[in-house]
Design brief:
- It is a single chain.
- This protein is of the alpha/beta class.
- It is built from seven helices and seven strands.
- It has a single domain (6-176), classed as 3-Layer(aba) Sandwich (Alpha/beta knot).
- It is globular, with a radius of gyration of 15 Å.
């Protein structure tokens, strides 16, 4: 099936995409994000605030070992993580419904056509109930919104992360060609 070994995965090129989890409380959601990050071969996950960190048995139940392959780092404060990413040259987007947000397709188009900042792109996903903290939204370079057409106005954070990682990783792969 063309699967990489853990050693080969660690040595493989990663996409310049960082996922920042802003106080995501569910260990299962954090694990699911790790698993999807492994599948998309993204650069790293930044865990912030109340997010659990590996090693963690509940995280492992959904990550299924991806916590061993995907690089991660921890920040006590999400603002610190975002500022660090911006200082490193990343364009940082909060994934949140907000005034003047861009659709995921618009951002993917920017990634594909403009390559944004030289380093790459980071996306911030928030707490399951409260979303991304307003002060974090305020310092991000923009907001990504996934259009929704049903009666609900939100999706599970791990599902949202999967959609965003997939679409942006596809745009980044198109740039590499």
């Amino acid at each position: 099936m063309g699967r990489l070994s853990v050693a080969d995965y660690r040595a493989a090129d990663k996409l310049p995409l960082v996922v920042v989890l802003d106080n995501v409380r569910s260990q299962y959601n954090v694990g699911a994000v790790f698993r999807t990050a492994d599948a998309m071969r993204i650069e790293r996950i930044d865990l912030c605030g109340i997010c659990c960190c590996p090693p963690n048995q509940e995280l492992h139940k959904t990550a299924l070992g991806a916590e061993e392959t995907v690089e991660w780092r921890y920040f006590k404060d999400t603002l610190e993580a975002v500022r660090a990413l911006q200082a490193e040259g990343y364009t940082v987007y909060a994934v949140e419904q907000a005034y003047d947000s861009s659709t995921l397709e618009e951002v993917a188009g920017k990634v594909k056509n403009e390559r944004l900042k030289e380093k790459g792109i980071a996306v911030v996903l928030g707490h399951e109930v409260f979303g991304v903290q307003q002060e974090v939204i305020d310092i991000c370079d923009g907001c990504i919104e996934i259009p929704q057409y049903g009666t609900k106005h939100s999706m599970n954070v791990s599902v949202t992360a999967g959609i965003v990682m997939y679409r942006i990783s596809e745009a980044l792969r198109a740039v590499k060609k």
